[in-house]
Amino acid sequence: MPQIEAIELDGHGPVYDQIKRAVTAQIRSGAWKPGDRLPSEADLSRSLATARMTVNRALRELTEDGLLVRRRRAGTFVAQPDAPAALLKIVDMAKAIPARGQAYGYICETDDTVPASPGIAKAMRLPPGARLQHVECLHTADGEIVEFEERWINLALLPGAAQAGFDTEGPGGWLLRAAPWTEAEHTVSAVNADADLARRLGVEPGAA
Amino acid sequence: MPQIEAIELDGHGPVYDQIKRAVTAQIRSGAWKPGDRLPSEADLSRSLATARMTVNRALRELTEDGLLVRRRRAGTFVAQPDAPAALLKIVDMAKAIPARGQAYGYICETDDTVPASPGIAKAMRLPPGARLQHVECLHTADGEIVEFEERWINLALLPGAAQAGFDTEGPGGWLLRAAPWTEAEHTVSAVNADADLARRLGVEPGAA
DNA sequence: TGCGGCTAATTGTCTATACAATAAAATCCT
DNA sequence: AGGATTTTATTGTATAGACAATTAGCCGCA
Question: Which among A141, B47, B168, B185 has most CB atoms closer than 10 A?
């Protein structure tokens, strides 16, 4: 089981930001690894001598950024990294358009692994034939097509993208796999975490 | 000067979410238009009988979503809609990658207005020759090219994209134009708002 | 008029506390 | 043992109050 060390603030800027940086630093440095459980808000607020609300804001925002995953009673965990970064922006797009009063739609036309064509390879400074994930999708607002987007993702750097499935189910279905698990029980808690994330991602956009 | 009516909560879910929905509804319905000033947090918390922190969280999150713009002492304004939606995801990408401990880079290769080629026109269900904004950019993490992205934006629906300038300065430079202005003084407050947004967008990623 | 300093309105953050919601873990009862 | 129930740890939200930071607007003065 991971032993979580105490973190320290740097006195620079708002406290919640200091906490965010400190936690981020722990994760970046590898001191806290994916799946590790963080100290509880109560513990952190005690050891940092701040109010729990401040810790809460920091952890809540990091969760929003996809760096952490939280579950009531279970605790706060370092999220599985890697692929979510590629998808956050889609989530964001899906969130931003309804906020403007329009019904957002996302249609994925193609999503497959292809060797880089000479033209794309040149654009990406890759050797021709490198494995790429090719995604074509449409963003619609109120049924009208706002944007056509074509992407080539370097699978050498983002291996998770191949299994991501950017299809019509939307990104939520994929993000499921970014769940936290404690070292001991893989399957069980992974299922739970999936349900948790699914709820988070499914309910929020629907409500707004 | 716009007369802002009181808003009402619906008793559904967390209060900060109710406030978010209520404000969003006002904006969607057109009751609050871009540039309009909202009641102050103090006024809202009084008229809604909630704590100011709760109102603050709601307005802060809506600001994060790009729906509002806030300035100390000046107040909270309905943001200029429209084009920011297309860019939020870039901002998000720029934020998400450094959060994972890598240096994010954004290189825009082309950004011009073109008539739709037959192939693209078909994909977007548009007549060939429709005006599109064509953007090609690279997303890099630690200098390595993670993703090549090509986009065609329907200028008929997002006219602002043409002047957006998705160039190497990054999206921040563009978002400047999404500033709020009171009906009376265009130029002056627009400049101020620019400075404000610039700070917001320039400082946050730099700190993290 | 124009400039400079003061005032005060507004947002931004922090604290301490409280209670609700959730679900893991322990306990009890059969 | 095993299933039901109770306990309890943890996050989620709400509140009231306080002070800091920013800056628009006002007032005075040259």
Answer: A141
